[in-house]
Amino acid sequence: MLTDATRQRDFPALAGTTYLNTAAESIPPLCVGDALQRYFADKTRGMRGRDAHFATVEACREVSARLLRLQPAEVAFCSCSSEAYNLLASALALGPQDEVVVSDLDFPAGATPWLRAQPAPVLRRWNSVGGALRIDDLVPLLGVKTRLVQVSLVSFYNGHRIAWAPFERAVRRLAPQALISVDITQALGRVELDCAGADIQISSTHKWTLGVHGGCIIGVPAAGAQRLTTRAGGWLHLENAFAADRFDRAVSRTGAASFSVGMPSFGALYALNASLRYLEAIGIAAIAAHADPLTARVDEGLRGLGLQPLCPWEPGNPTGIVAFRHERSAEIHAALERDEIQVMHNAGRLRVAVHGYNTRDDVERLRRVLAGVV
Q1: CA 166 to chain centre
Q2: Count: domains in the chain
Q3: Structure pTM?
Q4: The domain spanning residue 241 has which CATH number?
Protein backbone atom coordinates (compact mmCIF):
# COMPACT_ATOMS: atom_id res chain seq x y z
CA MET A 1 0.00 0.00 0.00
CA LEU A 2 2.83 2.39 0.88
CA THR A 3 6.39 2.66 -0.29
CA ASP A 4 9.13 2.93 2.32
CA ALA A 5 9.36 6.64 1.52
CA THR A 6 5.64 7.40 1.81
CA ARG A 7 5.32 5.28 4.95
CA GLN A 8 8.13 7.25 6.61
CA ARG A 9 6.64 10.51 5.36
CA ASP A 10 3.03 9.87 6.39
CA PHE A 11 3.58 7.72 9.51
CA PRO A 12 6.87 8.80 11.14
CA ALA A 13 5.59 7.47 14.49
CA LEU A 14 5.96 3.92 13.14
CA ALA A 15 9.75 4.23 12.94
CA GLY A 16 11.44 1.72 15.24
CA THR A 17 8.25 -0.04 16.26
CA THR A 18 6.03 -2.85 15.02
CA TYR A 19 2.50 -1.62 15.52
CA LEU A 20 -0.13 -4.35 15.31
CA ASN A 21 -2.85 -2.86 17.48
CA THR A 22 -5.04 -0.78 15.16
CA ALA A 23 -8.17 -2.62 16.33
CA ALA A 24 -7.71 -0.70 19.58
CA GLU A 25 -6.00 2.54 18.49
CA SER A 26 -4.79 3.67 15.09
CA ILE A 27 -1.65 5.57 14.20
CA PRO A 28 -2.98 8.60 12.26
CA PRO A 29 -1.13 9.93 9.22
CA LEU A 30 0.39 13.38 9.50
CA CYS A 31 -2.45 14.87 7.45
CA VAL A 32 -4.70 14.26 10.47
CA GLY A 33 -2.41 16.37 12.63
CA ASP A 34 -2.52 19.08 9.98
CA ALA A 35 -6.32 18.95 10.07
CA LEU A 36 -6.34 19.35 13.85
CA GLN A 37 -4.08 22.38 13.47
CA ARG A 38 -6.57 23.84 10.98
CA TYR A 39 -9.34 23.24 13.49
CA PHE A 40 -7.36 25.11 16.14
CA ALA A 41 -6.67 27.98 13.75
CA ASP A 42 -10.36 28.21 12.89
CA LYS A 43 -11.28 28.01 16.57
CA THR A 44 -9.07 30.97 17.39
CA ARG A 45 -11.26 33.06 15.08
CA GLY A 46 -14.10 32.70 17.56
CA MET A 47 -17.59 32.85 16.14
CA ARG A 48 -16.19 33.65 12.70
CA GLY A 49 -14.55 30.23 12.69
CA ARG A 50 -17.89 28.43 12.73
CA ASP A 51 -18.32 28.80 8.98
CA ALA A 52 -15.18 26.69 8.49
CA HIS A 53 -16.29 24.30 11.23
CA PHE A 54 -19.63 23.52 9.63
CA ALA A 55 -18.15 23.42 6.12
CA THR A 56 -15.75 20.72 7.36
CA VAL A 57 -18.64 18.77 8.88
CA GLU A 58 -20.37 18.77 5.48
CA ALA A 59 -17.15 17.70 3.72
CA CYS A 60 -16.78 14.88 6.25
CA ARG A 61 -20.41 13.86 5.71
CA GLU A 62 -19.77 13.64 1.97
CA VAL A 63 -16.73 11.36 2.16
CA SER A 64 -18.30 9.27 4.93
CA ALA A 65 -21.37 8.70 2.78
CA ARG A 66 -19.26 7.47 -0.13
CA LEU A 67 -17.47 4.92 2.04
CA LEU A 68 -20.76 3.77 3.61
CA ARG A 69 -22.37 3.69 0.13
CA LEU A 70 -25.10 6.07 1.23
CA GLN A 71 -26.19 9.59 0.37
CA PRO A 72 -24.83 12.53 2.43
CA ALA A 73 -28.28 13.25 3.87
CA GLU A 74 -28.31 9.68 5.24
CA VAL A 75 -25.16 10.22 7.35
CA ALA A 76 -24.69 12.08 10.63
CA PHE A 77 -22.26 12.22 13.55
CA CYS A 78 -22.23 12.01 17.32
CA SER A 79 -19.46 11.63 19.89
CA CYS A 80 -18.94 7.84 20.19
CA SER A 81 -20.61 4.53 19.40
CA SER A 82 -21.95 4.22 22.96
CA GLU A 83 -23.85 7.47 22.51
CA ALA A 84 -25.15 6.27 19.15
CA TYR A 85 -26.50 3.03 20.59
CA ASN A 86 -28.19 4.77 23.49
CA LEU A 87 -29.80 7.17 21.02
CA LEU A 88 -30.88 4.15 18.97
CA ALA A 89 -32.52 2.73 22.08
CA SER A 90 -34.43 5.97 22.50
CA ALA A 91 -35.63 5.79 18.90
CA LEU A 92 -36.94 2.25 19.24
CA ALA A 93 -38.49 2.67 22.71
CA LEU A 94 -38.80 -1.09 23.14
CA GLY A 95 -40.80 -2.73 25.89
CA PRO A 96 -41.06 -6.14 27.61
CA GLN A 97 -43.17 -7.47 24.75
CA ASP A 98 -40.31 -6.89 22.28
CA GLU A 99 -37.22 -8.99 21.57
CA VAL A 100 -33.66 -7.95 20.68
CA VAL A 101 -31.03 -10.33 19.31
CA VAL A 102 -27.34 -9.64 20.00
CA SER A 103 -24.29 -11.85 19.54
CA ASP A 104 -21.65 -12.93 22.03
CA LEU A 105 -18.99 -11.48 19.69
CA ASP A 106 -20.39 -7.94 19.91
CA PHE A 107 -18.71 -5.00 21.65
CA PRO A 108 -20.51 -3.98 24.89
CA ALA A 109 -21.71 -0.66 23.40
CA GLY A 110 -24.00 -2.52 21.01
CA ALA A 111 -25.38 -4.99 23.54
CA THR A 112 -25.74 -3.27 26.92
CA PRO A 113 -28.30 -0.51 26.14
CA TRP A 114 -30.96 -3.21 25.96
CA LEU A 115 -29.95 -4.48 29.40
CA ARG A 116 -30.15 -0.96 30.88
CA ALA A 117 -33.47 -0.01 29.29
CA GLN A 118 -36.49 0.48 31.55
CA PRO A 119 -38.66 -1.33 30.76
CA ALA A 120 -36.27 -3.77 29.15
CA PRO A 121 -36.99 -5.87 26.07
CA VAL A 122 -36.28 -9.58 26.03
CA LEU A 123 -32.64 -10.07 25.09
CA ARG A 124 -31.75 -13.14 23.03
CA ARG A 125 -28.11 -14.07 22.48
CA TRP A 126 -26.74 -15.51 19.27
CA ASN A 127 -23.83 -17.60 20.51
CA SER A 128 -20.77 -18.31 18.41
CA VAL A 129 -19.48 -21.83 17.87
CA GLY A 130 -15.77 -22.30 17.35
CA GLY A 131 -15.38 -18.54 17.12
CA ALA A 132 -17.92 -18.11 14.30
CA LEU A 133 -21.60 -17.16 14.12
CA ARG A 134 -23.69 -19.72 12.25
CA ILE A 135 -26.97 -18.81 10.58
CA ASP A 136 -28.51 -22.10 11.75
CA ASP A 137 -28.06 -20.92 15.35
CA LEU A 138 -29.69 -17.56 14.60
CA VAL A 139 -32.84 -18.95 13.03
CA PRO A 140 -34.49 -20.17 16.30
CA LEU A 141 -33.98 -16.72 17.86
CA LEU A 142 -35.98 -14.86 15.21
CA GLY A 143 -39.73 -14.35 15.17
CA VAL A 144 -42.63 -11.95 14.99
CA LYS A 145 -41.60 -10.30 18.29
CA THR A 146 -38.06 -9.55 17.12
CA ARG A 147 -37.64 -5.78 16.79
CA LEU A 148 -33.88 -5.45 16.47
CA VAL A 149 -30.97 -7.66 15.44
CA GLN A 150 -27.64 -6.12 16.42
CA VAL A 151 -24.35 -7.49 15.02
CA SER A 152 -20.80 -6.41 14.29
CA LEU A 153 -19.69 -6.82 10.70
CA VAL A 154 -16.25 -7.70 12.10
CA SER A 155 -15.93 -8.77 15.73
CA PHE A 156 -13.59 -6.80 17.97
CA TYR A 157 -13.05 -9.96 20.00
CA ASN A 158 -11.64 -12.39 17.46
CA GLY A 159 -11.98 -10.85 13.99
CA HIS A 160 -14.92 -12.98 12.85
CA ARG A 161 -16.67 -11.41 9.87
CA ILE A 162 -20.32 -12.18 9.57
CA ALA A 163 -21.56 -13.76 6.36
CA TRP A 164 -23.75 -10.79 5.51
CA ALA A 165 -26.02 -11.93 2.68
CA PRO A 166 -27.36 -15.13 4.31
CA PHE A 167 -27.64 -13.29 7.63
CA GLU A 168 -29.77 -10.52 6.15
CA ARG A 169 -31.95 -12.97 4.23
CA ALA A 170 -32.66 -14.94 7.41
CA VAL A 171 -33.65 -11.84 9.38
CA ARG A 172 -35.90 -10.43 6.65
CA ARG A 173 -37.62 -13.79 6.16
CA LEU A 174 -38.15 -14.81 9.79
CA ALA A 175 -38.40 -11.44 11.58
CA PRO A 176 -40.16 -9.10 9.16
CA GLN A 177 -40.64 -6.39 11.82
CA ALA A 178 -36.99 -6.33 12.87
CA LEU A 179 -34.46 -3.64 12.15
CA ILE A 180 -30.85 -4.62 11.46
CA SER A 181 -28.17 -2.60 13.22
CA VAL A 182 -24.52 -3.23 12.33
CA ASP A 183 -21.40 -1.99 14.07
CA ILE A 184 -18.77 -1.39 11.37
CA THR A 185 -16.08 -0.01 13.71
CA GLN A 186 -13.71 -2.93 13.04
CA ALA A 187 -14.36 -2.85 9.29
CA LEU A 188 -14.59 0.73 8.03
CA GLY A 189 -11.27 1.77 6.51
CA ARG A 190 -9.89 -1.77 6.39
CA VAL A 191 -12.32 -3.96 4.43
CA GLU A 192 -14.76 -3.19 1.65
CA LEU A 193 -18.19 -2.97 3.25
CA ASP A 194 -20.76 -5.53 2.16
CA CYS A 195 -23.61 -4.71 4.53
CA ALA A 196 -26.08 -3.29 2.02
CA GLY A 197 -29.58 -3.55 3.43
CA ALA A 198 -28.65 -2.65 7.00
CA ASP A 199 -31.13 -0.26 8.62
CA ILE A 200 -28.40 1.55 10.56
CA GLN A 201 -24.58 1.47 10.46
CA ILE A 202 -22.47 2.76 13.35
CA SER A 203 -18.71 3.29 13.55
CA SER A 204 -16.23 4.85 15.94
CA THR A 205 -13.56 7.05 14.36
CA HIS A 206 -10.28 6.26 16.14
CA LYS A 207 -9.50 2.79 14.85
CA TRP A 208 -9.21 1.61 11.21
CA THR A 209 -10.43 4.98 9.92
CA LEU A 210 -7.17 6.51 11.27
CA GLY A 211 -9.01 9.35 13.01
CA VAL A 212 -9.09 10.46 16.65
CA HIS A 213 -11.41 10.07 19.63
CA GLY A 214 -14.62 12.00 20.00
CA GLY A 215 -16.46 11.03 16.84
CA CYS A 216 -18.93 8.45 15.57
CA ILE A 217 -20.50 7.95 12.15
CA ILE A 218 -24.17 6.99 11.86
CA GLY A 219 -25.68 5.90 8.55
CA VAL A 220 -29.46 5.50 8.18
CA PRO A 221 -30.96 4.94 4.69
CA ALA A 222 -33.78 7.35 3.95
CA ALA A 223 -36.30 4.52 3.62
CA GLY A 224 -36.07 3.81 7.36
CA ALA A 225 -35.67 7.35 8.61
CA GLN A 226 -39.05 7.59 10.35
CA ARG A 227 -38.52 4.37 12.34
CA LEU A 228 -35.03 5.44 13.34
CA THR A 229 -35.66 8.92 14.66
CA THR A 230 -34.42 9.43 18.20
CA ARG A 231 -36.53 10.77 21.04
CA ALA A 232 -33.60 12.67 22.54
CA GLY A 233 -33.63 16.27 23.65
CA GLY A 234 -31.03 18.72 22.44
CA TRP A 235 -31.04 21.39 19.78
CA LEU A 236 -28.97 20.75 16.65
CA HIS A 237 -31.26 17.95 15.49
CA LEU A 238 -34.45 19.94 16.06
CA GLU A 239 -36.41 21.72 13.35
CA ASN A 240 -37.73 24.30 15.80
CA ALA A 241 -34.84 24.68 18.27
CA PHE A 242 -35.14 28.48 18.34
CA ALA A 243 -38.71 28.96 17.11
CA ALA A 244 -41.41 30.68 19.13
CA ASP A 245 -42.96 27.32 20.06
CA ARG A 246 -39.70 25.73 21.30
CA PHE A 247 -40.98 25.38 24.88
CA ASP A 248 -44.24 23.83 23.73
CA ARG A 249 -42.93 21.10 21.44
CA ALA A 250 -39.69 19.67 20.05
CA VAL A 251 -39.76 18.68 16.38
CA SER A 252 -36.87 16.41 15.42
CA ARG A 253 -35.28 15.90 12.06
CA THR A 254 -35.68 12.28 11.01
CA GLY A 255 -33.26 9.39 10.61
CA ALA A 256 -29.52 9.92 10.84
CA ALA A 257 -29.89 13.67 11.46
CA SER A 258 -31.74 12.98 14.71
CA PHE A 259 -28.55 11.45 16.18
CA SER A 260 -26.66 14.78 16.03
CA VAL A 261 -28.30 16.22 19.12
CA GLY A 262 -25.74 18.89 20.06
CA MET A 263 -22.72 20.84 18.91
CA PRO A 264 -20.55 18.62 16.68
CA SER A 265 -17.18 17.43 17.96
CA PHE A 266 -15.48 19.60 15.37
CA GLY A 267 -11.91 18.52 16.12
CA ALA A 268 -12.77 14.85 15.63
CA LEU A 269 -14.57 15.62 12.36
CA TYR A 270 -11.69 17.71 10.99
CA ALA A 271 -9.50 14.68 11.73
CA LEU A 272 -11.99 12.20 10.25
CA ASN A 273 -12.43 14.22 7.08
CA ALA A 274 -8.68 14.14 6.53
CA SER A 275 -8.20 10.47 7.43
CA LEU A 276 -11.09 9.17 5.31
CA ARG A 277 -9.91 11.16 2.30
CA TYR A 278 -6.42 9.75 2.83
CA LEU A 279 -7.83 6.20 2.88
CA GLU A 280 -10.13 6.90 -0.07
CA ALA A 281 -7.21 8.19 -2.15
CA ILE A 282 -5.36 4.91 -1.57
CA GLY A 283 -8.51 2.83 -1.98
CA ILE A 284 -9.99 0.36 0.50
CA ALA A 285 -9.59 -2.42 -2.08
CA ALA A 286 -5.86 -1.63 -2.32
CA ILE A 287 -5.55 -1.62 1.46
CA ALA A 288 -7.25 -5.01 1.69
CA ALA A 289 -5.15 -6.44 -1.16
CA HIS A 290 -2.00 -5.43 0.71
CA ALA A 291 -3.03 -6.28 4.28
CA ASP A 292 -5.10 -9.45 3.83
CA PRO A 293 -2.11 -11.63 2.89
CA LEU A 294 -0.23 -10.26 5.90
CA THR A 295 -3.13 -11.17 8.18
CA ALA A 296 -3.21 -14.64 6.64
CA ARG A 297 0.52 -14.91 7.35
CA VAL A 298 -0.12 -14.09 11.03
CA ASP A 299 -2.77 -16.81 11.19
CA GLU A 300 -0.42 -19.29 9.51
CA GLY A 301 2.41 -18.38 11.87
CA LEU A 302 0.29 -18.91 14.97
CA ARG A 303 -0.83 -22.32 13.79
CA GLY A 304 2.76 -23.24 12.99
CA LEU A 305 3.62 -22.58 16.62
CA GLY A 306 0.74 -24.69 17.89
CA LEU A 307 -1.36 -21.64 18.79
CA GLN A 308 -5.05 -21.82 17.91
CA PRO A 309 -6.62 -18.60 16.59
CA LEU A 310 -9.99 -17.81 18.17
CA CYS A 311 -11.61 -17.49 14.76
CA PRO A 312 -10.96 -19.57 11.66
CA TRP A 313 -9.29 -17.59 8.87
CA GLU A 314 -11.57 -17.30 5.84
CA PRO A 315 -9.76 -16.18 2.67
CA GLY A 316 -13.08 -15.35 1.03
CA ASN A 317 -14.26 -13.25 3.99
CA PRO A 318 -11.09 -11.65 5.36
CA THR A 319 -10.59 -9.13 8.17
CA GLY A 320 -7.63 -7.45 9.81
CA ILE A 321 -7.77 -9.24 13.18
CA VAL A 322 -6.27 -12.49 14.46
CA ALA A 323 -6.61 -13.34 18.16
CA PHE A 324 -5.55 -16.22 20.38
CA ARG A 325 -5.46 -17.25 24.03
CA HIS A 326 -2.53 -18.61 25.99
CA GLU A 327 -1.95 -19.51 29.63
CA ARG A 328 1.30 -17.50 29.48
CA SER A 329 -0.27 -14.54 27.70
CA ALA A 330 1.23 -11.98 30.10
CA GLU A 331 4.72 -13.37 29.53
CA ILE A 332 4.20 -13.38 25.76
CA HIS A 333 2.92 -9.82 25.84
CA ALA A 334 5.87 -8.66 27.93
CA ALA A 335 8.30 -10.24 25.45
CA LEU A 336 6.58 -8.50 22.55
CA GLU A 337 6.66 -5.16 24.36
CA ARG A 338 10.39 -5.53 25.05
CA ASP A 339 10.90 -5.94 21.32
CA GLU A 340 8.75 -2.88 20.53
CA ILE A 341 5.88 -4.95 19.14
CA GLN A 342 2.46 -3.66 20.14
CA VAL A 343 -0.59 -5.95 20.23
CA MET A 344 -3.67 -5.98 22.45
CA HIS A 345 -3.55 -8.04 25.65
CA ASN A 346 -6.66 -8.54 27.75
CA ALA A 347 -7.66 -11.32 30.17
CA GLY A 348 -5.45 -13.99 28.61
CA ARG A 349 -6.29 -12.97 25.04
CA LEU A 350 -3.78 -11.53 22.59
CA ARG A 351 -5.11 -9.73 19.53
CA VAL A 352 -3.08 -8.86 16.44
CA ALA A 353 -4.41 -6.24 14.02
CA VAL A 354 -2.93 -5.66 10.55
CA HIS A 355 -3.65 -2.45 8.62
CA GLY A 356 -2.39 -0.99 5.37
CA TYR A 357 0.62 0.66 7.01
CA ASN A 358 1.95 -2.68 8.23
CA THR A 359 4.63 -4.59 6.32
CA ARG A 360 5.81 -8.14 5.87
CA ASP A 361 8.76 -7.27 8.12
CA ASP A 362 6.25 -6.43 10.90
CA VAL A 363 4.65 -9.85 10.58
CA GLU A 364 7.95 -11.75 10.40
CA ARG A 365 9.23 -9.90 13.46
CA LEU A 366 6.10 -10.91 15.35
CA ARG A 367 6.58 -14.53 14.30
CA ARG A 368 10.21 -14.59 15.41
CA VAL A 369 9.50 -13.20 18.86
CA LEU A 370 6.53 -15.52 19.38
CA ALA A 371 8.66 -18.49 18.37
CA GLY A 372 11.29 -17.48 20.90
CA VAL A 373 8.76 -17.35 23.73
CA VAL A 374 6.31 -20.13 22.87
Answers
A1: 21
A2: 2
A3: 0.96
A4: 3.40.640.10
